[in-house]
Write a structure and sequence with these properties.
Elements (H helix, E strand, L loop, with lengths): L2 H7 L2 H33 L1 H21 L16
């Protein structure tokens, strides 16, 4: 999740927790993705690793595109003149 989207959709009091959770998840998933890539390469060949990754990225982009109204966020903060 991009930082600008985090700023828009996550309340200030939870932003640090969510950021930490996302960073921890990415650190945990790196070895898992290496393991899965190795399994795919061993069973099907290295070309299929790239094919799988490309299809996965296409799926994620399609999912975001289908749910693009989720990112049309109106600011709830109001500024007051002092």
């Amino acid at each position: 999740m991009s930082h600008s989207v985090q700023i828009l959709i996550i309340p200030d009091e939870y932003r640090g927790r969510v950021s930490t959770l996302l960073q921890a998840a990415s650190v945990v998933l790196i070895p898992l993705s290496n393991f899965l890539g190795g399994l795919i390469a061993d069973h099907f060949g290295a070309n299929y690793v790239f094919l799988f990754c490309g299809l996965w990225q296409f799926f994620v982009v399609l999912l975001v595109y289908k749910n693009r109204e989720m990112f049309n966020i109106q600011s709830t903060k109001t500024e007051t003149a002092v």
